[in-house]
Amino acid sequence: xxxxxxxxxxxxxxxxxxxxxxxxxxxxxxxxxxxxxxxxxxxxxxxxxxxxxxxxxxxxxxxxxxxxxxxxxxxxxxxxxxxxxxxxxxxxxxxxxxxxxxxxxxxxxxxxxxxxxxxxxxxxxxxxxxxxxxxxxxxxxxxxxxxxxxxxxxxxxxxxxxxxxxxxxxxxxxxxxxxxxxxxxxxxxxxxxxxxxxxxxxxxxxxxxxxxxxxxxxxxxxxxxxxxxxxxxxxxxxxxxxx
Length: 243
Ligand code: MN3
Prior knowledge:
Elements: H1 3-17, H2 21-25, H3 57-79, H4 89-94, H5 101-119, H6 129-139, H7 142-155, E1 160-166, E2 172-178, E3 193-199, H8 206-209, H9 213-220, H10 226-237
Antiparallel strand pairs: 1-2, 1-3
Bound molecules: manganese (III) ion (MN3).
């Protein structure tokens, strides 16, 4: 794939993944509406206790209402009265090294948590046949993928994230990132469209799992929203918007 095509793929896919539904559907009056890339604090797609016993309600409430909201507010402050107010997150991340640490850390924190909430569901499920076949191709087996993802999440030193991404060659890869960095950022070692992510900051699990990060990651498999992850993957493969 040519670089330009990939940038387009990354931009479209990731932008749509985190754009409020009302904005993406409202194409007719788009010229009158707020810019499609405007930044909004999203609603949590389930109740705080919906992911129990794997993630407890208190952790969810603090994580969403304090941590995530805090990143959003600081991000808003960091971009106030700048051109970034109307720029999509993937476009901001594509040049994030030029925008300063306030945008990198708080923009990452805002965006990464949106993907994290979307990656989870009380219903769990399984990958689609197409995603499963690609996971098997890339990691030998589904268990091979889970091992790679577990390892990336478990061994990320300090705070950070692990990701399943689709890269520029449309291959699946597992990567990790420190702090609030993500694979859309120009500073990332391996870039791609995020499909699935896990937050391994201690605030994501310490109340319930204390220092047992591995137990938290194992519990995570019970609540992965494979329906959404599969949809993102199949649309990204075709170069379509990832909703
Ligand atoms: Mn977090």
